[in-house]
Design a protein that fits this description.
The chain is an alpha/beta fold. It has one domain (9-118, 206-382): Thiolase/Chalcone synthase (Peroxisomal Thiolase, Chain A, domain 1), CATH 3.40.47.10. Helix content is 32%, strand content 19%. The strands form two sheets. Strands 3-2-4-7-1-8-11-10-9 form a nine-stranded mixed beta sheet, with helices on both faces. β2 (51-54), α2 (62-70) and β3 form a beta-alpha-beta unit. α5 (158-172) crosses α9 (283-292). It is globular, with a radius of gyration of 19 Å.
């Protein structure tokens, strides 16, 4: 028996703006441009939007700031901020609001000018009081701890981590919107400047500008739009800690809990998944999430990604836009997981288009491996 929320809503509008570097624009202006693009994509007017879901790293009261800037008076609004996974959680929250009849058209949006506003890594994953004496550079130090533990416990190598970055770059080279393009070898990754052992600069995500927005409506309304809808199939979140020092096991994330619940809600099996969009802020993320979502056994993630398995032409399509490592990462990346999944489901991905793209798994990560949210989007064929 399928879950009552499965297939009940769909994304009908998608907009992107300012990917890479957008000098002269504020974070809110970029967000506004992506909203306009999403409205045009859906054939809708701003006045049609009656629910707003937003999270940013630059506005404490995100939905209120968005509402004011856009001149909206929504019936429903939410600023849940659990880091970069917020937007996957917003997919679930917007679906609940639509299904309850609290709104008719839900906007999910994000914008950041992180790169051109200063180019520094700005993170809401600040160290907790008990970590400060050690002088961590968060969030990098936290993820380096997880990588070092995985290396120690499972024999994962820096070369295996590097293969994640190489695969991401190969996908980015097929994406004209990707910020980092060009050759990248395993040797390049290993020779890059060490930031926090064992992670080099090439193991770390980009610092870019960028904005993205999507519009959800109930499934019956989605049938009237011009472009193929991307249907919500399921989602689940899990959160075990805030600070990295409180993480129960540095090699096991809460994706091991959110994943199974999301799979059950979506009613799909791993072999049904055509595309994995994993929050790859660091190379270790991809390895951890492949394990915790059940695509390989715990400890085997490093060996799993070798031989181009997650690169173009490999056995498993992972982060086909180039990911946060090579495409775009403006502080919070979760909206861009959604954007690539919708693009693939619509068959609008150009040279990187997958032969089959009916089921997309999106996995968002927030804080220092803290909040984990798994979501599924699907084509009409999945209903």
């Amino acid at each position: 028996m399928s879950h009552p929320l499965r297939g009940r809503t769909a994304i009908v509008g998608l907009g992107l703006a300012g990917l890479g570097a957008a000098p002269g624009f504020s974070a809110m202006e970029l967000l506004g441009l992506s909203v306009r693009a999403a409205l045009d994509d859906a054939g809708m007017r701003l006045a049609d939007i009656d629910a707003v879901f937003a999270a940013t790293s630059s506005h404490a009261f995100a939905s209120m700031s968005v509402v004011e800037y856009l001149g909206l008076r929504p019936r429903y609004f939410d600023s849940t901020n659990v880091g970069g996974s917020s937007f996957e959680m917003h997919l679930l929250q917007a679906t609940l609001a639509l299904e309850a009849g609290l709104c008719d058209a839900a906007l999910i949006c994000y914008g950041s000018n992180q790169r051109t506003a200063g180019g520094r890594l700005v993170s809401m994953s600040e160290p907790q009081w008990h970590e400060v004496p050690y002088g961590p550079r968060h969030p990098i130090t936290a993820y380096a701890l997880a990588a070092a533990r995985h290396i120690h416990q499972y024999g994962t190598s820096r070369e295996m981590l590097a293969d994640v970055a190489v695969a991401a770059r190969q996908w980015a080279n097929l994406n004209p919107d990707a910020f980092a393009r060009g050759p990248l070898t395993r040797e390049d990754v290993l020779a890059a400047r060490m930031v926090s052992d064992p992670l080099t600069t090439a193991d770390c995500c980009l610092v870019t500008d960028g904005a993205a927005a999507c519009i959800l409506v109930r499934a019956e309304r989605a049938k009237d739009v011009a472009k193929p809808p991307a249907y919500f199939l399921g989602a689940a979140g899990a959160n075990w800690h805030r600070s990295i020092q409180a993480m129960p096991d540095l090699t096991v994330t809460a994706a091991s809990e959110s994943g199974p619940r999301a799979f059950a809600m979506a009613g799909v099996a791993r072999e049904d998944v055509d595309l994995l969009m994993l929050y790859d802020a660091f190379t270790i993320n991809t390895i951890l999430f492949l394990e915790d979502l059940g695509f390989c056994p715990k400890g085997e993630g490093g060996r799993f990604v070798q031989g181009g398995r997650i690169a173009p032409g490999g056995g498993l399509a992972v982060n086909t836009n180039g990911g946060g490592l090579s495409c775009v990462h403006p502080g919070m990346y979760g909206m861009f997981l959604i954007a690539e999944a919708v693009t693939q489901i619509r068959r609008e991905a150009g040279a990187r288009q997958l032969a089959r793209a009916d089921v997309a798994l999106l996995h968002g990560n927030g804080g220092t491996l803290s909040s984990q949210v798994t979501a599924f989007l699907g084509s009409e064929a999945t209903l």
